[in-house]
Amino acid sequence: MLIEAKGLRGGYGQKGILHGIDLRLEAGRIIALIGPNGSGKSTLLRLLAGHLQHEGSLDWLGRSDWPRQELARTVGYLPQFPSFEDEQSVGDVLRLGRIPHLGAFGFESPADTASVRNVASLLELAELLDRPMRELSGGQRQRVFIGRCLAQEPKILLLDEPTSALDLKHQAELAGLLRRLAAERQLGIVLACHDLNL
């Protein structure tokens, strides 16, 4: 079991938003969280990513006591509104996904470089690696942010509205890619979405 939550409760500060959530995510599976804006989808993803304090039981791969860096190698999280610095290139943002894997001195290894190149190829970003993020379309940026998550080589992907800013063609391609990654890499994926067609 990749994620197992029982009686999960949490929110922001003293304000509880979610109460009594039970969830099980198995390798190779995709769970879609569907609901209107403000229903708690993003909050649940942040809880599952370990970004918010919670009550109840929450285990990743059978453990609840993960050091932050280890959890970052295991769980890839794409927020609904990811950000970037104006001077960053596509390659810079993809390399951020490798931070949990860097050694004590922060040097990139050949494995880090290969991971970034593989992800860039997978998402049709290879020709954009040197392009500044500010010059990309919204859909291209979204693919870069998804690539940053994939560069982590996680076992669990938590994606908040991953198709926002993508045109219909790239939405369909992303859906197919996520299904393929779940099956081939035995990833567990939880994604928040309000698009019933997707």
Quickly list its features.
198 residues; alpha/beta; four-stranded parallel beta sheet; 6 helices; 33% helix; globular
Report on this model:
The structure is a single chain. With 198 residues, this protein is of the alpha/beta class. 33% of the residues lie in helices and 24% in strands. The chain has helices at residues 41-48, 68-74, 90-96, 110-122, 138-151, 168-184, and strands spanning 3-12, 15-25, 30-34, 54-60, 75-78, 156-160, 188-193. Strands 3-7-6-5 form a 4-stranded parallel beta sheet, with helices on both faces. Strands 2-1-4 form a 3-stranded antiparallel beta sheet, with helices on one face. Strand 1 and strand 2 form a beta hairpin. Helix 3 runs parallel beside helix 5 and helix 4 runs antiparallel to helix 5. The chain is globular, with a radius of gyration of 17 Å.
What can be said about this structure in brief?
This protein has 198 residues and is α/β, with parallel strands linked by helices. It contains 6 helices and 7 strands; from the N terminus they run E-E-E-H-E-H-E-H-H-H-E-H-E.
Counting DSSP H or I runs of 4 or more residues, the number of helices is 6
**Main beta-sheet annotation:** 4 strands, parallel
Radius of gyration: 17 Å
Mean pLDDT: 92
* Distance between the amino and carboxyl termini: 25 Å
